[in-house]
Amino acid sequence: MAALLLYRACRRPILAGTYKNSYPGATFLNDTSNHRPASTEAAVTAATSVQVANASGMVGFWQTLSNSTPVAYMQDALIQIHDYSGLPWWASIVLSTFLFRSVVTLPLTVYQHRITARIERIALEMPAIVEELKREAAMAKHKFKWTDKQTQVVYQRSIKKQWQKLIIRDNCHPMKTLIVLWGQVPLWIFQSVALRNLVYLLPDPTSIQAQIVATEMTIGGFGWIPNLTVVDSSYILPVALGLINLAIIEVQSMSRTRPATRLQNAMNYVFRGLSVVMVPVACTVPSALCVYWVASSSFGLAQNLLLLSPEVRRSVGIPKTQTELDQPYDLLWLKIQQRVGLVERSSPADKTQPPATK
């Protein structure tokens, strides 16, 4: 959703000027060639005022974000990385993307996997606890003459209490699995807006540094996009962005060992739709943003593939679980072949592991 909201901000901010020049304030009331009833004139003026206010509010929001302190720090960091590395701007953008994601999102993703693994392991302790609570509830019902409803309330409360004790014991609250979003989404927004500022000489177009950076970006591209301040007219980067994002979703789906729930299936379709929508969005923004988005998604895909490996998971402290794949890459390759029709689909019992090779 953040990608779609950035759509307006990643283009030249001319909306406010357009409304300013065409604002029909009192024109309708003084126009002798178009006599409308006073109520109609008031309605038109009020509706137009609402539209102008909404547009001004959106422009004001993006202007505030563009001038914010985190974006300013990110902008300065991008310039420093480019100056110290001596790389062309396209390579500097890729380098900074990999650097920021390695420092921010990779540790958070590892932490998320640790929390998920702990939750899965404590879930295995619950069946024995549930059976014990059932016996205790039956004894309490007989001893205190409780009704079925009273017994059920106490039983459910006891289960919840025991689950909370396990969560506290292993320090794995389910809300902690969302920690990646709190790091990745702000990073993505700030770096996108910072690159947009560099392209459009913001926030101060009269700054010598801004003019130098913008000039360097016009010759800092590569191959078919030598100018990073214009859109990719070949559509190669936008299409690559969509394909990489779809690959991330499919890898996560195919590496799942348990049957997907309705919510998971629905979310997969939503993210697939967003991946497709990002293609036309990327076709309208400067190539510098496309380079960043493609680099960020490529890092995400590589990160997901890397964290499927049992060896890598053990090296970063992720506990082993029952749903962990022993041969994840063989299973992924098998499922890809099944999807394209090269191999017949296996039975449900054989979905978690690839067939043994001789």
Question: Briefly, what is this?
Answer:
GO terms for molecular function: membrane insertase activity. The protein is mostly helical and 358 residues long.
Tell me about this structure.
InterPro entries: YidC/ALB3/OXA1/COX18 (IPR001708), YidC/Oxa/ALB_C (IPR028055). It is a multi-pass membrane protein. Belongs to the OXA1/ALB3/YidC family. The chain crosses the membrane at residues 89-111, 179-202, 222-248, 269-295. It is found in: Membrane. By secondary structure, this protein is mostly helical. Among the domains are: 1-65, no CATH class; 112-176, no CATH class. It contains 16 helices and no strands. Helix 7 runs antiparallel to helix 10 (179-199). Mean pLDDT is 83; it is low at 11-55 and 348-352.
Helical fraction: 55-70%
Shape field: elongated
For the terminal residues, how far apart are their CA atoms? 47 Å
- Largest sheet report: none
Residues in β-strands, percent: under 5%
Number of DSSP helices?
Answer: 16
Number of strands: 0
Quickly give the structural class.
mainly alpha
> Radius of gyration from the CA trace?
28 Å
Low-pLDDT sequence parts: 11-55, 348-352
Element order, helices and strands? HHHHHHHHHHHHHHHH
Mean pLDDT: 83
